[in-house]
Amino acid sequence: MSRSYIIAGIITVAAVAWIASGQIGGGKAADASAGAQPEPVVQAPVVPAVRVARLSAEPMANEVVLQGRTQSERSVELKNEVRGRVEAVLAERGSRVKEGDAIVRLAVEGRQHALVQAKTLVAQRQIEYDAAAKLTSKGFNSEIELAQARTNLDAARAAFRQAELDLAHTVITAPFAGVLDTRPVNVGDYLDIGKPVATVVDLDPIRVVGFVSERQVAQLGVGGIGHALILDTVERDGRISYISATADPATRTFRVEVDVPNPDHRIVDGLTAQIRLPLEQKLAHRVSPAVLTLADDGTIGVKLVDPGNHVRFVPVQILGRAAEGVWLDGLPREALLITVGQEFVVHGQEVKPVPAAGGLS
User: Fold this and answer.
1) Res 320: pLDDT
2) Which helix (H) or strand (E) holds 339?
3) What residue spans of the chain are helical by DSSP H?
């Protein structure tokens, strides 16, 4: 037999033996491996990160805003007190008048003569009374005659005072400083007693009238500050001059009047006005509306991070608007507010707070 065939046979027998031994051992190893269970891998829970900002309570400039109108401080319609013809018109409509300025003058006619007569009669009755008193003191006159003389003197004095008034009433004057709003008479008109002659309106100060609710009226007081914005153009500061003691039965609101200076008479009666009345100051938190969230029952609130880094939902009350957001009540004086990510975490969940770079979002 060839030597090469012998070597090949030896190699073949060795290979078959090696393969057979591997299958037998491998099968046992595979069975052992198949019967073993892998160890479970325990992963740590993921703690979500939220952006937070430190929130501090600050004084809130609380105020009530009303819609109202302007009203003259006072207005009076002047009426004629004696009959007569209009002799002169001394003030034009729309002009400013001072207290005591003449507006209309009636013809004097016989009133000056009646005044002279009344004065002469007073002098005569005075002489008669003095004589009666002297005679009575000497017993030559009775007390009845003295009383009659006294009555005549008093009647003469009353007639004189009436004659003075009739003459004075021929000139109709302004009772206070203001604006002559109406003057429905002209030269030549004959006026009877009680005929309207003019209307004088006092515009300084001007009164701004509004109505507040029953919840707000208790926080206001006479003498308090008020701010009035007239037709969105003229802004004036004033003082509360009147608060109604009874509510309007239809609206359950209370009338409030604010007097504001108006020396230039720029503000007239009947204009639309906005009134801002400061209320009691209180501590509150100013936040962006974006941080507000809703609970499952619809309650409005915000989400805070407590000292243990757990989320807390806190209900809040919106007190009003601010220049940079809204004012909230119901939060602790100092709080760590979630500004980004509040919609993805729930009450009681652990979070990783990350400070906001630019304050509130």
Assistant:
1) 76
2) strand 334-340
3) 3-35, 111-137, 143-168, 214-217
